[in-house]
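[Q] Does anyone have a clean structure-token version of this?
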Amino acid sequence: MAEDNVLVDVQGLTMYFPVTAGVFRRKVAEVRAVDDVSFQIKKGETFGLVGESGCGKTTTGRAILQLYRPTAGKVFFEKNDLCKIGGEELRRSRRNMQLIFQDPYASLDPRMTAGNIIGEPLRVHGLVKGSEFQEQVAELFKLVELEPRMADRFPHEFSGGQRQRIGIARALALRPKLIVCDEPVSALDVSIQAQIIMLLERLREELGLTYIFIAHDLSVVRYISDRVAVMYLGKIVEITGSDELYDNPMHPYTQGLLSAVPIPNPRVDRQRKRILLTGDVPSPVNPPPGCHFNPRCFAVKAGCKEAEPELKEVTKGHWVACHRA
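[A] Here you go.
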């Protein structure tokens, strides 16, 4: 990948959370939420991040934005390492990075009007004065296909889909270059999901945005993403183009995930091979030795329990962390 075309370069990102006990809250263990994750995102690309609940997707997104300060690793945004800056410098950098939250009900302040919610980033960064505020807010309402006259309403007066549009408009207020979409449609009805996905696609084309799209719905990820990374227990096990991942999954975990995706054609659905992943996801406090997936893998061999596989390029643009790949 050409360096000039890279917007985000994540190198060895690690995020551990301490586990404490006792009266003095002494550290007794640590939750390895994200463990040595590396990838690059091109300008204008939608980079999908998928995996089971608790695999570290959301933590990865928030660590990239420095909402969590990483335990180790580097996050280069336009060649500047965000992990090394703080204070006012980091605050200025955040104008170019925004977040769309998963829950449109909990992510909006119920005491603020929709107009003030959307326009708050403009006031915080001192970008508007006087009548400019109302004009900018009205423009943002139109951008997400809402009526500007709704600006005086409170969040409880909107539907779930409309609330998520307000969240999207708030993320767009500062005209960012990168938006982390943290499962933005999982709390919405299916018909509304399609509308929000189409809106995000249109905004990407019109505004030249770059997305990190976090989700567990593989059908949605295939539709919107250019490349997809599959996470398991804090590690990335496979990265490749969206179509390549679905047509030629190489990691056993990816194969198991895809076999659970419903196919609308009953004849094809009956003929495909089902892969059932046995057991539960191990605890991130005490992950298994070797490959983290080995206790549930249907293709496990002796070496899988001893050595941790490297994420390596098996074919052009297709990276897999598996001893069998």
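[Q] Thanks! Anything notable?
[A] The CA atoms of residues 312 and 319 lie 5 Å apart.
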